[in-house]
Amino acid sequence: MKSIIHRSETRGHANHGWLDTHHTFSFADYHNPERVHFGALRVLNDDIVAPGMGFATHGHQDMEIISIALEGELEHQDSMGNVHVIKKDDVQVMSAGTGIRHSEKNRSQSQHTNFLQIWVFPREHGVKPRYQQMNFPRESKKNHLLNVIGPDQSGSTLWIHQHAWL
Fold it and tell me: Which of 5, 29, 114, 126 has the fewest C-beta atoms lying within 10 Å of its C-beta?
């Protein structure tokens, strides 16, 4: 397999005031025809959300959406009735399937929230939307690799509708 290196300084960047974001692949106003996706990996965004700000309610369909909190807290609300807070060391999976609407907001009025948003194309379309979240404490990741996402529904990891592991 050929190695592909994308250096951080070559990513797309946008600062909207309330959102400072870096895009590894083409996203929103950033378009690079050589970086649209990598296999099933469609989006890898590093987002910093200003205090009290966030993404208004919007929709997704047929996408596996993963959020990894690096700093701060992000409140998630969706059309399935889920209301959760994604905290540092939490990983969230949302399978959009037939369609889901959600919003995300930085709960703090004084601190920025930093999280990774990862989108993966599903291996099957039209599945029932679902939400899953787990915490992976820092000590569980120290000095070894830890599988947090995969296609296995055994319960020891979060699962997505794709033969992909993270």
Answer: 5
